[in-house]
Amino acid sequence: MNNENGLCMESKTPMAEVDEADDSMLGKTKISPLRRWINENFLLVLTSVGIVFGFILGFGIREVNPSPELLTWIGMPGELFIRMLKLMIIPLIASSVIAATASLDAKSNGRISLVAFIFITVTNVLACVIAIVLALIMKPGVGVTFVTTETKSTAVVETSDVFADLLRNIMPDNIVDMTFQQTITQNEVTYETLIKNTTNGTVKETVKKLNKTVGKTSGTNLLGIIMTCMLMGIALSKADEKGKPVLDLFESLADIFLTILRWLLWFTPLGILSLIAASVASITQLEEMFRALGMFVGVVTLGIAVHQLILMPLIFFVSTRRNPYRFAVQIGKAWMIGLASTSTAVAIPEMLSACEDDQKVDKRVSRFVIPFCVTLNADGSALFITAAAIFVANITGVNISLGDILIIGILTAICSMALPSIPSSSIVTLVMILTSMNIPADSISLLFAVEWFLDRIRTTSNLVSHTHCVVVTYHFCKNALEKFDISEKKSNQEKQAAIDVVIDDNIHHLN
């Protein structure tokens, strides 16, 4: 009996081990889709939690009227997070653009640049069209009276200056200076009183003079950095073997800085929680503000929703025939960083990750197009500026025709490509457009009351457009890149064959 029990136990033990192994294997394969998604998107989940708790904490602290010192320390983790991200942006952009440009020939670079530029121009125009249609339907500011104080400013902004500065920034005069300063035309109006002696006596005449000076303003000249790095990359590609060590250096630097940035992104949940809490807690008269500007906020918010949920997915699907909303989930982490930081530049690492890892975009395309878009592409800003210009015209009682509205849209679509990637830069362009259309710009001070919210949501639209531009550009340039790779491989094989022939000849002569 004991022997039988013993034999039985000995025979069952191996089977039990197999069953346990099978159970463990089944357990691994039976992970629920939700749990698998959470495991793969753990940082995205934490970031979402950070956003929710940021709003909760912010509204809670706001009720106790926090002091400026308390707000400073609440926002300190977020400020340090953004500072560290910005620290890595310029090295990453410079090394990525040089490496990407040097890896392609001039024809491929030109094709990628052309497709990306067409996408940027078309989507900027479509964003303005969305704003115009919604503004004509919802009529923000009509029937609303605001009391504003008229102010006179001696500083003016002209449309020609914007384009002149754009060209100057494309070709910077100092390779170090462009990393922290941009060229800007500064205009100042002065009035001189002239005394003239006439037959009717002495007459005083006031003459208006405009003094133009080309100066500098703080802010990274990303456009100049990209163009300079493109030239260096093209030169490296022409240098052949002599440029290979330098190309290897920049490719290594790009990977190193991207690795550091991905380490820093694990602090995203805490940084976003801090930034949103400090921003919300500092708001005063929230209810009155949205009540007065509610229709304008509604126009911009609805326009942003149409842009992100309808326009961009439609362009993505028509171009690639792939599911656009799956891609929307893949850029979720980048979207949240843009929402919190109000700058698409600091979300570059996550945009690269979504395009390269999830959409399998060639690094040579993504690492050139994303910095290019960060510099020129601003769909959300174009939408906001167009709606804001119509809103200001309505509240100031200026009658603008359909032709005037179309001119506002055209000016905005073009000028938005000159916006720097810094918070609230759209306000500067708005002043210029209002001035060029003879619309009083004094009422734009009202917009600062909702700038904390609108700046965030328009930044997310800019970011969505950047990532979609990368995928669409790669789709239209993929075949050209494959042909280039084949020809490059064939050329390398021919070079190696020629070298082998020379070596064989030398060996033959030595023998």
Q: Overview of this structure, please?
A:
The structure is a single chain. The chain is mainly alpha-helical. The chain has a single domain, classed as Sodium:dicarboxylate symporter (Proton glutamate symport protein, Orthogonal Bundle). The protein is 72% helix and 7% strand. The protein is built from 19 helices and 3 strands. Strands 1-2-3 form a 3-stranded antiparallel β-sheet, covered by helices on one side. A hairpin with a 2-residue loop joins strand 2 and strand 3. Helix 13 crosses helix 19, helix 14 runs antiparallel to helix 15 and helix 16 packs antiparallel against helix 19. The protein is globular. The chain starts with a helix and ends with a helix. The N terminus is likely disordered.
